[in-house]
Design a protein that fits this description.
Layout: H1 20-34, E1 64-69, E2 75-77, E3 80-82, H2 87-97, E4 102-108, H3 113-126, E5 131-136
Helix pairs in contact: 2-3
Length: 141
């Protein structure tokens, strides 16, 4: 008995790449149109208009809360050191006691930047609407 072997033709599988660029552009357009981007970016401030002579605003001491950050990243409310994790609740409590409270965030020029953002976020989450920013400079410079 003769075994007849069939010669099998092996064809290489080819992937058509002619429309690959079209598919890539369609995917890019799809993801660009369906992605949600964060609406809140950066810090929103209402800045006063520029005037020839700056106006000095007087705020009573009882209506002013100073939040200070030193160069080591320690946070102080007025002159009392506070744990940054308890800052939001402490500010919220003081805002409930005094509705006219103005919060002044003073940051040392060598303080960690992330700490200033953390304090600002805590003030914002506590409901602080009247917020001022300041810098504590090195003494002698």
């Amino acid at each position: 008995m003769a075994i007849i072997q069939r010669k099998q033709l092996e064809e290489e599988a080819e992937i058509p790449t002619a429309s690959m660029a079209d598919i890539a552009f369609l995917l890019i357009i799809f993801f660009m149109t369906t992605t949600n981007f964060a609406r809140e970016k950066g810090l929103k401030f209402l800045l006063p208009e520029k005037k020839e002579q700056p106006q000095e605003i007087k705020i009573a001491k009882k209506n002013l809360l100073k939040v200070s950050i030193n160069d080591r990243g320690e946070v102080f409310l007025n002159d009392e050191q506070v744990n940054p994790n308890n800052l939001e609740s402490e500010i919220k409590r003081r805002l409930e006691e005094n509705k006219k409270l103005v919060i002044l965030i003073r940051t040392h020029e060598n303080a960690p930047y992330g700490m200033m953002i953390k304090v600002f976020d805590a003030v914002k989450a506590a409901g602080g609407k009247k917020v001022g920013l300041g810098v504590i400079k090195e003494e002698g410079t």
